[in-house]
Specification:
- InterPro entries: Globin, Globin-like_sf, Globin_lamprey/hagfish.
- Residues 4-161 form the Globin domain.
- It catalyses: H2O2 + AH2 = A + 2 H2O; 2 superoxide + 2 H(+) = H2O2 + O2; Fe(II)-heme b-[protein] + nitric oxide + O2 = Fe(III)-heme b-[protein] + nitrate; Fe(III)-heme b-[protein] + nitric oxide + H2O = Fe(II)-heme b-[protein] + nitrite + 2 H(+).
- Helix content is 76%, strand content 0%.
- It is mainly α and 165 residues long.
- The protein is globular, with a radius of gyration of 16 Å.
Amino acid sequence: STMSLSEAEVQSARGAWEKIYVDAEDNGTAVLVRMFTEHPDTRSYFTHFKGMDSVEEMKQSDQVRGHGKKVFSAINDMVQHLDNSEAFLGIVTPLGKKHATQLKIDPKNFRFTLVVSFLFLVYIICDIILQLMEEKFGGDSKASFEKVTNEICTHLNNIYKEEGW
């Protein structure tokens, strides 16, 4: 499957992303903290974040900050390859497969809820990134990056189907 973004869309998406990626660790942390507070059930997927109750505690946590930065770095790699679907898929595919196979370790009766939940996590994270972009840089940034988050979610969805979920 090929990317559905034009050259102009790729450029404006990169411009929007660069503004938020400048503070990758802080913004990545903000996205995760917002996810954990607005969707508390998502915390159960991050066992090493258990026991953190306050927002302040989460914001200060090296583990949350590290994972926030990791999420932003992964998206940054994808953004750099928006104009090359082969390279883009070369990043998204192993990422999706890694999460798909890691989650397969869990008991069979949880299979359905887990796969929905992992994709749900991706959708939530993408949604919060778009919210943050809009809050910080306005609606145009959000609009130009929305196509990228759609691509990411679509490809991850396909990978999960291929992995037999």
